[in-house]
Amino acid sequence: MLHEIEDLGAERSRVSRRPESASAPPVLAHFELAVDGDPAAYASRLRGALDAALAIAATASFDDAAELPVGTMPAWFSGVCRGGGSPEPFAAEGRDRYAERTGGAPWDLQDWLSRFDPDLEVRGWAWWDLTRPPAGAEGALRLWADTWGEPFFAWEDLRWLAHAAGARSVADPVLVRPAVWEGETSA
Q: What is the per-residue pLDDT across 74-127, written as a single tens digit (0 to 9) for each?
């Protein structure tokens, strides 16, 4: 998927506030998340890391051989990425759950950020919202993404972010009509 600079701005806006119902695409994907602790703290971590990544994507040059600037990334996220040092306990647990679920190693921060290159077509999703399902268990959240209606899309970078922010589990995506999202409260 091609993410234009304007699209990144709109996506970044959705990270910080609930999108208007009228702007919803015909189909959205949601991922069931289970988080330990305060869901609001989890939401803040998740949104903060994604906002920083989208800001880098909108302003940094991905063409240079130099590394992308990472000074605005939250320290907890930089710390949990491969080679990042000592992660926060919630992030270390999320990293371990990611490895258990996928068999994969932690993402390198530069590699993860490269997925946000507006000219690369590797990120198969755009952030939509984070909600609390109406009848969800304690710690249940839904992460919403616009996948342009595609049922199969690249999202391992999003799974990494969700786990690194402290998710106990991240279910595979389900495509639904936006009416489901409209009936839920943003977290």
A: 999 999 999 788 889 999 999 999 999 999 999 999 999 999 998 888 899 999
Q: Could you report the per-residue pLDDT of 122-135, keeping only the tens digit for each?
A: 899 999 999 999 88
Backbone angles phi, psi at 7, to 5 degrees: -65, -40
How far is the C-alpha of 164 from the C-alpha of 46, rounded, in Å? 9
Residues 73, 91, 120: CA angle, nearest 5 degrees: 45
Q: Evaluate the CA torsion angle 62, 67, 72, 74 in order and state its sign.
A: positive
Q: How many CB atoms lie within 10 A of CB 184?
A: 19
For range 18-30, the mean pLDDT: 98
Nearest CA-CA partner of 53 in 71, 79, 29, 67: 71
Tell me how far apart the alpha carbons of residues 133 and 70 are, in angstroms, rounded to a whole number: 33
- φ and ψ at residue 143, rounded to 5 degrees: -95, 130
Q: 128 and 12 in contact (C-beta within 8 Å)? A: no
- Checking 89-97 for CB contacts under 8 A at 24+ apart, the result is 90/36, 90/37, 90/45, 90/165, 90/166, 91/164, 91/165, 91/166, 93/36, 93/166, 94/162, 94/163, 94/164, 94/165, 94/166, 94/167, 95/163, 95/164, 97/163, 97/167, 97/168, 97/169
